Amino acid sequence: MSLSSGIKTPAQAISSLTNKWGWFIVLGILMLMLGGIAFGNLLFATVASVYYVGITILIAGIVQIIHAFSVQTWKSFFFWMISGALYAAAGVLTFLNPFLASSIITIFIAAALLGSGVFRMWVAFQSRSVKGWGWMFVGGLITALAGIVIAIGWPVNSLWILGMFLAIDLVFQGWAMIALGFGLKTMRG
């Protein structure tokens, strides 16, 4: 496929975005406002996060159930059907009991942070001969400590931790969109 068939190069794609720089700023401001709202009510933001995860799991389950009818063997059919039914049930349960779901998700996040942090510290320690390995070790240590702090506060912190992550993400993404918008404006000339 040649570039003349309508596919833009990265430079052409960025150039076409320069005319839309204002939309990035508006989107960034909207995300900042939503982040502020989320910080103002972390419980609501946690429930919104859980519902987002729940709808994603529910859709995945439905797709797997539909896929089950397209497989050729009974063994595969039952595998996909049971897998899809379990996914769909998990999605429905997040809507029926979002606080239980937030508790489960929070402990999984704690375990993932702890495991990831320990692994990064191990990789850094194995890379002691490389200049700057200490930064990777410190980053892994901070990640592991975040996992420990979340685990120590569990299950009470599961009422607000997901909401806080959502709020932080919205604020940082908002600032990133605003910076990108102003960057595109300066490229426009």
Automatic annotation (TrEMBL):
The chain crosses the membrane at residues 21-44, 50-70, 77-96, 102-123, 135-154, 160-184. GO terms for cellular component: plasma membrane. The keyword Transcription regulation does not apply. Keywords: Membrane, Transmembrane, Transmembrane helix. It comes from the Bacteria. InterPro entries: Acid_resist_chaperone_HdeD, DUF308_memb. The keyword Metal-binding does not apply. PANTHER family: PROTEIN HDED. This is Uncharacterized membrane protein HdeD (DUF308 family). It comes from Pseudochrobactrum asaccharolyticum.
